[in-house]
Amino acid sequence: MNQTELYVSLDIGSSSIKVLIGEMTNGSLNVIGVGNVKSNGIRKGAIVDIDATVQSIKKAIEQAERMIGMSINEVVLGIPANQAMLHHVKGVVAVNSENREITDDDLDRVIESAQVMSIPPERELVNLVPKQFIVDHLDEIKDPRGMIGIRLEMDGTMLTTSKTILHNVLRCVERAGLQIREIYLQPLAAGYFALSEDEKNHGTAFIDIGGGSTTIAIFQDGHLTHSSVLPVGGDHLTKDLSIVLKTPTEQAEKIKHQYGHAFYDDASDDELFEVPEIGADMKEQYSQRYISEIIGVRLEELFELVLEEFYRMGLQDLPGGVVISGGVAKLEGLTQLARHILQTRVRLYTPEYIGVREASYATAVGLIRYAHMEDQFYNRLGGSSALGQSKKPEHSSPVPKKQKHSNNVNEEDKESVMGKARKFLDKFFE
Fold it and tell me: Each residue of 168-192: pLDDT tens digit?
């Protein structure tokens, strides 16, 4: 069956907002549209200015729309892991049907029963990730449908986040005129496809180093077990360069990308460049080794904080090593420095799709693939309304259309979060 499904993912980050339009055909992703704009109104992964964030989302959406000449209606949304918590949950139900065959209905009921656990009023459910199903004490079942049994159980992980963080993100997406197809925790979607099956089983840390923050996700036995966010990222490197070199932030960002090197021992003394100073007409000359010292100190601090997080999580050993992704991952010498400090195997993850061969697109790609995996499991394929009509210059209906969507999202705010989360069967079907 050659069915093509369209998905649009929205990754709201501290330094940039990314929109990805992808076609999923026979399990393979084909990227047909990309929007990537600098984000405003976001600090350390959290929204601090609603209006500025809405404008940034609209710009990124428009950029992607121009590439395909169609309007975007709904998105798969990634929620940052700030203040995310993981709770172990268990659901138990009796099989309903007379012939004792487990159906979709039984599956829905056991997932609902797992959500009985009381959630504090300041928190909201984002995802429910089943670890295993148990049919009459027979465990480690991935999909119980079609089996015969009397008692159906489910062990899973409930992912909750701060209601404030979640609702602010939802409000921004709503005001940008978009509907939400699914919601996932960013490290869950990104890490699930960035890591190989062995890495997920053995115990591996997936580290996404973004602009304003660094997200750590630990996968063990095939599932996400820990998640944490550190308030240090690529923007801190830029700020350090700007202060030490006495140069504008914009210039410091360029220097970081063009000449930056994370590992002092491998940096070059011969590679020289000129830097304009703030408030002066003169330019100073620096070597790559000099700026690698500035960058290296900050990154060493970051990896020391990562180690502290590992100890706090109670991780003695990571047999699968560390996988690094995110915007800072393309910095030369980063893996060498990470190996030196973390004392384990380190590799970089970069999506291998045309148009998005950059580590910073790991989350945007992961969201699409994760949503497709779920849709396949639930047989929800074919009902996509991610894209609307072709965009024409003389056509002026987007305004009312967006208003309509805005209302829909508003009405379905709870459904978007709670109702949809009920259907979230993730993690182990591929």
Answer: 999 999 999 999 999 999 999 999 9
Closest of 80, 49, 285 to residue 172, by C-alpha = 49
| Residues 46 and 9 grouped into a single domain | yes
Indicate if 11 and 47 belong to the same structural domain. yes
- Specify whether the CB–CB gap between 6 and 384 falls below 8 A: yes
Whether residue 170 is contained in a domain is answered as yes
Domain housing 95: 85-159
Say how far apart CA 168 and CA 174 lie, in whole Å.
10
| Full-model pTM | 0.87
User: Do the bridges between strand 42-43 and strand 322-325 make them parallel or antiparallel, or are there none, so unpaired?
Assistant: unpaired
**How many folded domains does the chain comprise?**
3
Question: Each residue of 109-162: pLDDT tens digit?
Answer: 999 999 988 888 999 999 999 999 999 999 999 999 999 999 999 999 999 999
Examine residue 354 and state whether it is found in any structural domain, yes or no. Answer: no
CATH number of the domain where residue 341 is located: 3.30.420.40
Taking the C-alpha atoms of residue 220 and residue 149, their distance in angstroms, rounded to an integer, is: 29
Burial class (CB in 10 A: 0-12, 13-18, 19+), 113: middle
